[in-house]
Amino acid sequence: MNAHTRDRLVGMVGLAVLGLVVAVAVRDVDTAVESWSRMGPLAPGVEIPRFRAQLSSGGNLDNDALRGEVTVLAFWATWCGVCEQQMPDIEALHRDYADRGVRVIGVNQDRDANQAQLVDAYVDERGLQFPVALDTGRMGRAFRVSLIPHVAIVDAQGELRHVHQGRVRADTLRQEIETLLNE
């Protein structure tokens, strides 16, 4: 094979590879556009999805149990530094609103075989009083949690009303809770 033929063959192979890369990219963009509404966290204004999680204190938590009271779901993990910073705010919400028809539930996202022991030690060390659900991943997927902390506020009818990814200011949560209580 002479140099000219080889160069033409290399050029044709390069064009074929480029065409394949473009075709895959177009397919990926098409898939992203088609599924855009299912990406990211669950959006406010929708009824909460079906889920079931075990509570660290025993018993289970499911979406039916969230009806009747405003509920703050705080998704967190023991290894999450930002979650650690936000925990005092979540505990204060529990303490300040427990007698006003607001339920605060921590949803632990640790994926350790000793999840229950990790959570119990974490909760005891910090003196946390709110209940904690031990999520095996199903609840997080139902709420489309992709980063923590993640706070979801559900109204008394079971509709998701507020969603926060990352750390959220305590006064923001209090304003949202007050609005729901006054409806």
Radius of gyration: 23 Å
Decide which structural class fits the backbone. Answer: alpha/beta
Which descriptor suits the 3D outline? elongated
Major β-sheet profile: 7 strands, mixed
Unreliable stretches = 29-39
Question: Please, could you describe this protein's structure?
Answer:
The chain has 183 residues and is α/β, with parallel strands linked by helices. The chain has two domains: 3-38; 52-181, Glutaredoxin. It is built from five helices and seven strands. It has helices at residues 3-34, 81-97, 115-126, 138-142, 170-181, and strands at 52-55, 60-62, 70-76, 102-108, 132-134, 150-154, 160-165. A seven-stranded mixed sheet has the order 2-1-5-4-3-6-7. The termini are far apart.
Structure summarized in a few sentences:
With 183 residues, the chain is α/β, with parallel strands linked by helices.
Features:
single chain; alpha/beta; Glutaredoxin; 183 residues; seven-stranded mixed β-sheet
Secondary-structure map:
Blueprint: H1 3-34, E1 52-55, E2 60-62, E3 70-76, H2 81-97, E4 102-108, H3 115-126, E5 132-134, H4 138-142, E6 150-154, E7 160-165, H5 170-181
Parallel strand pairs: 3-4, 4-5
Antiparallel strand pairs: 1-2, 1-5, 3-6, 6-7
